[in-house]
Each structure stands twice: as C-alpha cells, then as structure tokens.
Design brief:
heterodimer; A: 136 residues; 5-stranded mixed beta sheet; B: Rossmann fold; 11 helices
Chain lengths: 136, 346
Amino acid sequence: MDALELSSHREADVTVVAATGDLDIVTSPRLDATLTEARRASTNVILDLSAVDFMDTSCLAVIVGHWKKLSARGGALALAGARYRYTKTLWITGLADRLPMYETVAEAVAACAGGAPQDAPAGLAQGPAPRPATPR
Amino acid sequence: MIRRSAGTRGGLSVKMEAQVAPAGATWTVTNMDAEFATGGGFSHEAVLYRQPAQYRSAVLGFVQDGLTQSQPVLVALPPVAGESIRGSLSEHPDLAFVDMDQLGRNPGRIIPAVWDFADRHAGRPVRFVSEPVWPGRSAAEIRAAVTHEAMVNLAFAAASVSVLCPYDVSRLAPAVTAHASRTHPVLHTEDGASESPDYAAGHIPPSARWALARPPQRAQRLDYTTDLKAVRAAVSRYATDAGLAADRLPDLVIAVGEVIANTLRHTDGGGTVYLWHTRSEVICQISDSGWITDPLVGLRRPLGPGGLGLWVVNQVCDLVELRTGKRGTSIRMHMSLPARKGRRRG
C-alpha cells in the first residue's frame, strides 16, 4: 500500500478530499495536486483527515497555501476528523486554532452549506491542549 | 553588546522593602538599590548569587523596575524559587510566570518563548528573568543551557529585551559560573554590578562545539533515503519497547519526521538514524550530510508555514543537541522515560 491514498468526491457543492495514510514531504506534492484540482471544482473544499496517521510541517505549508487561496475567493478550506494523536503538528504549530476544523465531514459540509466558514467557527474540533510551549 | 558601564547606566533605583515585601515576610533585603538597564535595547545580565536574599533582591528589583516602566515581564524560574518570587509579587497584567523546569527542560524552547512573549507585547520593551541552570541538570543539559545563553546574545542583539539570569554559584560547578561570565556582558555579585571582564560575544563552551560522542555500540542503526515512513515506524517501535509514554510517542515521531524530511529537502543523499536508550531516556540521533549555517535556526516560531521543522523539534523534545559543519549535521534528540521500576535497562 502507498504511504498515502487520496480520493475526492462531491457533497452538495463542496469537494471533499479524503486522505489515508501519511502526509509528509514525500507525499505532500500529491496532496498539493489533489487540492489544486479540488479548488478548480469548488470554492469550498473539505480535507478529511480522519484516516491520516502522520502529518509533518511540509503538509501544513500545502494546506495553508490552499486555505489562503480559497479564502481570497470567499471560499474556505475546512479540516475534518483530525485526530490529535496523529496530526498533533496542527496543534503544536497553532494552526488548529486558525484553520476551520470540524469533528466530522458531515459537520464541515453543513457549515459550508450554511455559509463559508472563515476561521475558528463554532463546532471547532477539540483536542487536548499540547504541552505548554508558551507561558500561560 | 556592552553599551554602557554599569556605574553610569540609567535606570530607577528601586527600594526593595517598601514595594515588594509581603506582609509578615521574615526575610530582609540587604542589597538595596538594584540598578538595571532600562528603556529599549538589549541587555543580558547574570546574578551570581550565594544567598537567597541576594537572589530575591535582584529578581524582585528587576521585575518591579520593569513594571514601573510599563515593560511586560516574563519570569521563568525553577518551581520552588518561582513560587517564592511569585508569592512576593502582586498580580499584574504585564507580569507572567512559567516553570523553567518545563519550559527550559529543553533549553532550545526558552528563546522561542521569549520571542512569543515579545511578539504578544509588540512595540514595548520586555523583560525576562531566566534561570536556565540549576543543580542536578545533566552534563548534556548544561551544555545546551550554556549554548542557549550564548544564543541569547545573538537572538536579541537588535531587540528591546532585557534578560536577567540568576546563577546559584554556591551550588553550581565553577565551570558553569565561568561560562556565565563569558555569556553575560554584566554580572551582579554581592559587591554590586559590573561589566564582565570575561564576556565574549558568541562564546559557546568548547564541550558544546565538539562532535557528539559516538552512539553506543548497542545503538540500533538504520540508513534511509526516501522511505521516511519506514524510519518513523522503526522509531515508534523502538521507543514503545523502551518504555516511552504513549502520550510522548507522537512527539518523538513528529521530531524524527521533521529531521528526516530536512535530509530530503536539503541534501542530495540520505541519512542515518541511531536509536538507543538509558534508564532515563530514549535517544535518537540523526546524521546526514547537510550543513545548517544559521545558528539561530529553530529558535523562533516561524511567521509562515515554512521553516518550521527545527522549531517543532525543539517544542516536542526534552533535549536537542545539534552539531553541524562542513562534514555534516547530527541532531540528537532526547526523550525522558517515565520513572518506574521493572523497565528494561539500556
């Protein structure tokens, strides 16, 4: 099995990209390509991270890049199903507080249907806080 | 970075007793007029103390002086001393505390935390109380802490950050104090403040520059090129078997992931992972042919999503030793094992 499998489908007028496996510097170009395609199809894109086992900072750069491009068009990139243990990089870097995050794809789709989430909407996926890296 | 001699520095003279003595305090302050660099600019001063009163006087004076001038102050001390100092100060919106044994467990996290604090108070000079070395730290930790002190002079040279670093000279090895006098332009002793005659900008202790000791014979060795997933899996298995706590395992895997990704990003070859453990730590060293030319790499939260790798490594590891040069880079990451009986010995 590949280190990363990617698939896309439409739900309502949203494109959902599901990632399975490891998101790292080796696989991030494919994530980039898939998100680029999704961005051509929809202004709202959901990245389903529920089956992601690892995430490094090169993928964060890819995700943030697409998030900015979609936001600039009045759309959004939302993350769904991120598991703290496997995608802790999102929390360490503080991106979990800045990107729209939902527990499930269904919640993310509903939020997109109700108007594009800009950032930190209600229903934000909650993970335990990482060990304090900065003073409280 | 000595800008003014201690005797002519401007600044408030703070009468300690009136401002900070808590009701019913039994201690008395003997060193009355604490003078510190003020206003903008960078200062980095060590307090070489032998008596608690000297320590309290210097730290409390530095904090009060800062608050009086509307300078936010971050205090990072080991817990017992920190609680004592905290108990002597009133709550203040510009005053923050952090446990140094957590923040500074890995000294590579200290400078990033000061930057975060300064960024939160952008436009204002800030102060930082930092006791990065305390009795009981390991030799590797002390090397890292002394290197940290040297990096403070580079990192904040152009920033409005005043740093005061207490050193318990009655309990620390003389070599530690000697390094403090090389890394701090100004020293406070029982006799008052003076320029450090030994100060050497950019001083890094020789032991922190020498190549790392070879990994032990028993270390597991793994060469890699592009199969990063296999490396992460091997590290995860090894650390689990060695007893690394389940909630710390992702930290090590993330750190390793960042370092091996850097090999791919910055070199045209592969690298080698060495894994071993002692009774108290899992240690993972990664060596490749890269050369990191920025001495401050990993010491500031990057503004964008690029260049995060070594900053993340510092955030999640308990200690990071980095050696880099023309012949390559080695990064040795330490993760503490939980203290419990019956663990396999290294």
